[in-house]
Write a structure and sequence with these properties.
Elements (H helix, E strand, L loop, with lengths): L9 H8 L3 H23 L2 H17 L10 H20 L10 H4 L12 H10 L2 H12 L4 H8 L3 H20 L1
Helix pairs in contact: 1-2, 2-3, 2-4, 3-4, 7-9, 8-9
Length: 178
């Protein structure tokens, strides 16, 4: 049985499939800000995020006929943006830390006291994390992917994803305490 999702912009998508430029522009306006923010959280550079956004929409409009409504357009578009962002990062060479000492962090729970930090301070702290930590933390906390999905996206093991996340969380709390 094939699952199909009702998309609130189904008519707009149908017009885009027909090559209607005005419909493409409307769809772009509906999703561009959220998709830009997704790219920016991953690549951490405004110009590069804008390039990723542009490439993602060009790719999406070229492949719109392959969009089978198995998810919403927004989710499909977000997957394209995340993949394009990760490609941009790979060009910079993201290095993941070895998980050889996984036992020391696998079951560790970090005490999360009642920290109330300003959003800008948290953003700055995330930006200070090593690329591998920042990427897993962003995908997990901000983009809502689980460790299995992150492992698939980044071509790493689930344990590596969990370890990177725990270490990133620990490091983030350490940065925020200072």
């Amino acid at each position: 049985m094939e699952v199909s999702y009702s998309d609130p912009h189904e008519d707009l998508i149908a017009d885009c499939k027909k090559g209607n430029r005005q419909a493409q522009f409307k769809l772009y306006k509906l999703y561009s800000k959220a998709m830009y923010n997704t790219a920016l959280r991953i690549v951490l550079d405004a110009e590069e995020a804008a390039d990723v956004l542009q490439d993602a929409f060009i790719d999406a409009f070229k492949r719109l006929d392959s969009f089978r409504q198995e998810s919403t357009f927004g989710l499909w578009m977000k997957q394209i943006v995340v993949n394009k962002s990760l490609s941009a990062l790979r060009k910079r060479t993201v290095v993941f830390e070895s998980i050889s000492d996984i036992d020391d962090v696998a079951d560790e729970e970090i005490e999360e006291s009642n920290y109330s930090f300003q959003l800008e301070k948290v953003k700055e702290a995330i930006n200070q994390l090593a690329a591998g930590y920042r990427l897993v933390l962003t995908l997990y906390l901000l983009e809502g992917y689980d460790h299995e999905e992150i492992a698939h996206i980044l071509k790493i093991s689930e344990n590596t994803s969990r370890t990177q996340f725990l270490r990133a969380k620990r490091k983030l709390l350490e940065i925020l305490k200072n």
